[in-house]
Amino acid sequence: MLITELASRCDARAQGGDATQSIHSAADIMSAQAHQVTVLSDGKYKKHLKDTQASACFIAEALIDAEMPAGLTLLVCQDPEISFLNAVKLLHPEPVFKRQVSEHAVLADTATLGYNVHVGPFATIGQNSSVGDSSTVEAGARIGNHVAIGKHCHIHPNAVIYDNSVIGNHVIIHAGAVIGADGFGYKFRDNQHVKVPHVGHVEIEDHVEIGANTCIDRGALGPTRIGAGSKIDNLVQLGHNNIVGRNVIICGQSGISGSCTIEDGAILAGSTGVADHVKIGARAVVMARSGISGDIEPGAQVFGSPAKDRKVAWKELAALAKLPELLQKFKALEARVHKLEE
Amino acid sequence: MLITELASRCDARAQGGDATQSIHSAADIMSAQAHQVTVLSDGKYKKHLKDTQASACFIAEALIDAEMPAGLTLLVCQDPEISFLNAVKLLHPEPVFKRQVSEHAVLADTATLGYNVHVGPFATIGQNSSVGDSSTVEAGARIGNHVAIGKHCHIHPNAVIYDNSVIGNHVIIHAGAVIGADGFGYKFRDNQHVKVPHVGHVEIEDHVEIGANTCIDRGALGPTRIGAGSKIDNLVQLGHNNIVGRNVIICGQSGISGSCTIEDGAILAGSTGVADHVKIGARAVVMARSGISGDIEPGAQVFGSPAKDRKVAWKELAALAKLPELLQKFKALEARVHKLEE
Amino acid sequence: MLITELASRCDARAQGGDATQSIHSAADIMSAQAHQVTVLSDGKYKKHLKDTQASACFIAEALIDAEMPAGLTLLVCQDPEISFLNAVKLLHPEPVFKRQVSEHAVLADTATLGYNVHVGPFATIGQNSSVGDSSTVEAGARIGNHVAIGKHCHIHPNAVIYDNSVIGNHVIIHAGAVIGADGFGYKFRDNQHVKVPHVGHVEIEDHVEIGANTCIDRGALGPTRIGAGSKIDNLVQLGHNNIVGRNVIICGQSGISGSCTIEDGAILAGSTGVADHVKIGARAVVMARSGISGDIEPGAQVFGSPAKDRKVAWKELAALAKLPELLQKFKALEARVHKLEE
Lengths: 342, 342, 342
Description:
Protein name (chains A, B, C): UDP-3-O-acylglucosamine N-acyltransferase
CATH architecture of the largest domain in chain A: 3 Solenoid
Largest interface: A-B, 61 and 60 residues
Largest sheet of chain A: 11 strands, mixed
Oligomer: homotrimer
Enzyme class (chains A, B, C): transferase
InterPro entries (chains A, B, C): Hexapep, LpxD, Trimer_LpxA-like_sf, UDP_GlcNAc_AcTrfase_non-rep
Family (chains A, B, C): Belongs to the transferase hexapeptide repeat family. LpxD subfamily.
Number of domains of chain A: 3
CATH class of the largest domain in chain A: Mainly Beta
Subunit structure (chains A, B, C): Homotrimer.
CATH topology of the largest domain in chain A: UDP N-Acetylglucosamine Acyltransferase, domain 1
Structural class of chain A: alpha/beta
Number of helices of chain A: 3
């Protein structure tokens, strides 16, 4: 694609260099070569611009100055990240494969498929389940009974969706994810753990993405719910009856026990943990590896285990680094006081 | 089901309200509606009782007082949690599906199946493996060679059981769990990691439940063993040659390195970690996100990383919160001593 | 196998006992019985030697002394661990199964298989993908399109390898591992998380082992790479665009965010976490449960979250244990100073 075309299709204006060159792919600013396009979205990478071998670079007006390399075409735009992201999609289109229902899949006689549904080999779809228009169920995926999957969803290979799950539109579920297994609940009686029946289900709203090998347990009674637009990374554990709001971000290997409420726009960084029956307020940020044992206020930024306000937590950690010295200084001061007392 | 019938089948006595009403399902006390049954098992939720829309509520004698809502039928019983749990099972029976050995499964010619075994589509069962009466092997599950599975087991979709595993009766293995992969062991020689052969196996005793995507590695030599009645949550890593006792609870995302002994009734809360060759005593409790690097006494309750007695750990955390102020106070005290010395 | 033969095939010299006895299997020093071979590789287990029931024991010259049990044949060798490891392989050979391409697998018409390739039932291999000589693709494994798998690889059941992955020779990928799913990246615009397209891929070099249910995301642009000889345990999360060097060890449940560099020979113990864009130097050791937020020097040994030099971290933890007492002592000292001031 010519730089000129790329510019016009990605809301950018070509400036300098040779805009009649063709671009075949996208790369980051340090590894890009001739006939590649890159992006400068953060001023701290600006030093790499003068050495880039890229033919074109998306950039915001504000980052342009006199020292721009002469051979490079700048693609000046309002939102370089989004323009670049769109360029990547244009230059690296998803491969088109033949959509079909594999003769090697097993669909229950009461299962229903919308228009343009793809079902890969060895996938299974249970009784009374439905898959909406243009959705894809890849090889080896397991769709249980009474499962409703909306339109334009992508269920990746070997993902497992248990009975009664309800999945919206434009939902992506990556390989090996398990949606709707029993929650982990027992009552200890007569020297044995009596299993609490889990008769609830999982609800996943529109535009949610669920990472590979992530587990989302169904509710004991009622739903476990993931709100629209929320994104969940790989290897996350989301226990029974959690209610996750809209546009929530949960990063890799985080674990949320059960019956928690995570409000809209909250962010849980990697490997965080949340005790049960906790509420995390809207747009709160839980920093990586933190453990949450009580409610978090909307907008709060917390760190540590148990987590507290991140500034307080950092002050404590800074103080801890001085503690070994303090212990010595204290001994010395005690001796001085003892001398004064004599 | 009529309230009267529900009461008699769940060891309860109906009192008040209209016990001739029918109940169609169970719900928690805050979301229950008419024709639903709920439970009050913990006094702290008692405030919700007066507003509940439920038609009936399991309750212990001791929690009843004069202010009980008039329209509600109390289901008075000795153990409300267990009575309610049984009610949930009665009201939400597991769907009955046709049990069969799918024509789309592949069973080795030397594999043997008991009476009433169900094998789903695309499941595989290897040479010399056996599945006991009334057990279920769901779609896409992989049973290796020389595997013995007992009676009334439920192997969920896409679970993988490697060769030589021995599995008792009434065992549940959730989707995507991997039982019997190689342990992680190498010897570093001549600038390469030489793989330690793992020729042991995994033994899982009766009434064990293994969560989704959990991994239990086989022993290097001899078994990795999970004792009867133990329950393991999702995404747990249990390394080679661990010996887990009876009725042990291991919560989500915990990791036990290898060659550990976890004695009967111990509880490992979520995201705990255990170094190798450690013994955790009977009924010890390891609190969430703790890291265990040495033996834990029976009955101990530990917290932190590295973990110590929980009261000691909490005292230290409380002290840490005062440390930034202490550093300032110390400086002031030093100045006062200096002045006295002049 | 006779002890004499075992000795000669494992670079050892038989000394004492009855070397004409036969050995049928291997066991650890505490559980070994007659006709088993064991090993003493670490002096701290020497006390168990006098009670062992084993018929033979690999041992280094330096650990032999006058008190060796009379009935035991010592297998004296330079490297007891490696000699024993080889003995285990000889005594417990991997079962030979019939290698074939299952009639129940689905291979794209453009997929190519080398000589002696095994493909299990219900495996799938996509368009333009290749599997090299003597490699094994087990039941239910998913090999996407344009995937290159080298020779002597073992892809275990239900593992999933996404499109465009490049896998070297002698690579082991355990059950349920997911190679090449999308990285976790979004840009927040107009109240929604816009998905960053991931058009990169995963490269796995020779002699790498990937644990069960581990996830390795593909690069956004360019590769996520695992260098030759590196070993990754179960349930590890390796994010997009990480570059892992040669002979790196990453233990169970560790998580590496994205765009990190982990240099040759580094060791990440269990449940460690690494923030994005971090460099971990060659042969650095990150101790269990540590969290890395900044670059680590080659050869450094770090602990804690955020991690620092392990000796510094331990000194701080030791000081913390004295803090509750210090707070009390400080109050007492303040009172004494106050008295002096009067």
